[in-house]
Amino acid sequence: MNKKVYNDLLLILQKSSTEDHIKINQPLSYYTYTKTGGPADIIVFPTTYEEVEKIYRYTLEHQIPITILGNASNLIIKDGGIRGVVMILTDMNKIELRGDSIIAQSGAAIIDVSRFALKHELTGLEFACGIPGSIGGALYMNAGAYGGEVSDVLTEALVLTKEGELKTVQAEELDLGYRTSNIETNGYLVLEATFGLKQGDVSEIKAKMEELTFLRESKQPLEYPSCGSVFKRPPGHFAGKLIQDSELQGKRIGGAEVSKKHAGFIVNVGNGTATDYMKLIAHVQQTVKDKFGVELEREVRIIGEDVKS
């Protein structure tokens, strides 16, 4: 990374320019749930919207590639890493109450937001008590579980446009569908989300969250690093059942393995690489297509560069 770029970014992050807030050539495997991913040229950890705006505009002005990450839970970063600037928003994690609405910054964990709702006796976010993603990522893919999804409770979002301008957009403007939105298409960077909830019975909210947490812990392979649910649910089928019926549980390529506990997950059982993951995903897709004629669409995002030979 150019020394001038490094110094300029330090100045932008002058309120928080410690070793914890700017990293050079650090492996992104430190930050991904799969524990895979090559190095980033430079990683910055902004703490305010002003810093995000300044960094984003700086990269636009100097034509430096920029990649935005939350907590990288439903993501695979290739072994060649990412060039340019990677902005990780996990230090922007404030959660506030406003009437019966919750305003959460994009780096906050949606699990923490669901717990905040419980604390304030608000119902509507129980489904999110086991989703490991950040608020930004949850909006990006309209995250959901156990019959609920972000679109059920989102009212509006504050975004930074691709031109570097702050803008408030209503939930219906984001085209939230099954594990999809128009956030990437529009070039939006999510800064915060507002969830409209309702007053509820705290004992009922708690009981529902405990039930869903039990289901998650009993069915999902949380003892291993993973990228969460790998595939979207194909119409008329369940991805995990198709993979299980294809006798793929336990199939391993390198350190990546189709979970023996839940076939919809691929886990890192030991020094797995992003390449291992991608090869295994492709193998699963081809096997299921050959056996059942069903094409599995990835839910997990894959970004970055391959290792240069």
From TrEMBL:
User: Which residues are catalytic?
Assistant: R179, S229, E299
Q: Which GO terms describe its molecular function?
A: FAD binding; UDP-N-acetylmuramate dehydrogenase activity
Q: Please tell me whether the keyword Magnesium is annotated for this protein.
A: no
Q: Where in the cell is it found?
A: Cytoplasm
Pathway(s): Cell wall biogenesis; peptidoglycan biosynthesis
Enzyme class, top EC level, equals: oxidoreductase
User: Single Gene Ontology BP term?
Assistant: peptidoglycan biosynthetic process
Q: Where is the FAD-binding PCMH-type domain?
A: 36-200
* PROSITE patterns, alphabetized: FAD_PCMH (PS51387)
InterPro entries membership = FAD-bd_PCMH, FAD-bd_PCMH-like_sf, FAD-bd_PCMH_sub1, FAD-bd_PCMH_sub2, MurB, MurB_C, MurB_C_sf, Oxid_FAD_bind_N
Give the cofactors, semicolon-separated. FAD
Keyword Membrane applies: no
UniProtKB keywords: Cell cycle, Cell division, Cell shape, Cell wall biogenesis/degradation, Cytoplasm, FAD, Flavoprotein, NADP, Oxidoreductase, Peptidoglycan synthesis
Pfam families xref list: FAD_binding_4, MurB_C
State its role. Cell wall formation.
Q: NCBIfam families, alphabetically?
A: murB, PRK13905.1
Q: Which family does it belong to?
A: Belongs to the MurB family.
Protein name, entry field:
UDP-N-acetylenolpyruvoylglucosamine reductase
The source organism is Alkalihalobacillus alcalophilus ATCC 27647 = CGMCC 1.3604
Name the gene that codes for it: murB
